Amino acid sequence: MSSRPPLAGVLRLGRPSDIWFKPALSVVVAVAPPSIALLALGRLDLAMYTMAGSLCALYAHNRPYAARARALAWVVLGMLGGLAAALVAASLAPGAVVLVMVGAVLAAVQKVLCDAARIGPPGNVVLTFVSSAALFTPQSLAQVPGHLALAAASGAWAWLVGMAPGLLRPHGPERRAVAGALHAAAAYVETAGTGRPGGQGGPHGTTAAGPHATATTAVQSARQALLCAGRPSETRQALERLRVRAEVALAAPADTDPEPLRTWARQVRGNRPVPHVDDLPGLGTGPAAPPGPLWRRLRPLAPLALRVALGCALAGYASLALGIGRPYWALVTAASLYQANLTLTWGRGVQRVVGNLIGVLLFAAVVPVAHSGGVALVLCCLALNFGAEALIGRNYWLGSVCVTPMALLVTEFAGFQEPGRLITERIVDTLVGALLGLVAAVAVPDRRWQRVVRAGGSAPRTLAATGRSRGLHPDQRADQRTGSETTEGVRP
């Protein structure tokens, strides 16, 4: 088998998320009021600091509101911590060489903390973008408290924006997760029952590995959503019984009718009463084991931290050597690449380069409009923020097409600049960051993923021994465990 990094499928567009509009609208609502207020005051040069807090509205949209409140609070605090470190370093550091090293260390810390805490997309990339840009913004120590206050105020507003939908649909995330599990289980049952091509033999006939993996992941996601949703309520208990029905469907597809699953999924959405189904004896889930302490989850991520720090430092110093005035673009490009394994990292690099190159062309088209005045600049940034979040779920490169001109326009808040120079520097930094980021990924391998894959061989025996009471076939239980480790490990 060839070991060359694959290109096929890296740029293929997927289906948008069911809630793609939520982060897209949330970021617009979070960014708009602070930006409009600064525009009215004639201080758009401060917009970078308010945007730092506003971008926290991108996070945690798939989490139940009790868990979302905690996650968003930690994201805001993490954003403020990274911004504070960057602003103090910008005030005190003797030159760009030191600033690049500080930026590389910050990027590594942000990456491992986000992965260990499982703060999902956009993960560390937004935090690193803000802190790295702040490192190369002229700053005095006396200005730092005021700039942090602006970021904190906009971060508090972003927290409110993220929590606001809970006033109308307090169980919305759990309902969506259970509905998704029921739909995915119905699709698997239908595929297993019809024996479509591309499946593999199983205890109940021909089953499709793709639908089974999708359904397993959906059921696990629903379980996690219910476990972190807060105190049990009548609605959540009814949702848990439906989730168990989806899990049972995975274990016995030949004995399951998919139509009730689909009917329940439709009824669960919205605010209608959750349909009641009887408990299945012996299939209660019980509480999950709490995750280990954060420090214990950080320990296996040491190679990742070293890889990120090395890649970001190499990219930043190469950018400085080429005379680029904004080496943080190369640094952020390198920080955005690192995924669970080298193949995925390579794919992300291709997506980043393609998206950024098309994005600078979009910037060239948009910049004449943005330069017509402050109102046009703010409106362009809002539109690009919406476009980035609406498209990035289809494929990372497609979202980058909007992220790139938005990031370039952020530099215009302090004053309009020559577009040709910005475009040239961004292209060079993208190529440098992607190349040297991949070099660091090869130079510092991570054996953790290979250990997970090798451990999968013993999974059937272990899982069969520990969970026969749940009624799952040993092969299906092995698939379920492997799927969990794949989807719940290092996230983008």
TrEMBL record:
Residues 472-492 have a biased composition (Basic and acidic residues). It comes from the Bacteria. The keyword Membrane applies. Residues 193-216, 462-492 are annotated as: Disordered. One of its GO terms (cellular component) is membrane. Residues 195-204 have a biased composition (Gly residues). The chain crosses the membrane at residues 20-41, 71-90, 148-168, 304-324, 357-384, 396-415, 427-444. Residues 205-216 have a biased composition (Low complexity). It holds the Pfam family FUSC_2. Keywords: Membrane, Transmembrane, Transmembrane helix. InterPro entries: Memb_transporter_dom. Residues 314-439 form the Integral membrane bound transporter domain. It is a multi-pass membrane protein. It is found in: Membrane. This is FUSC family protein. It comes from Streptomyces cyaneochromogenes. The lineage of its organism: Bacteria, Bacillati, Actinomycetota, Actinomycetes, Kitasatosporales.
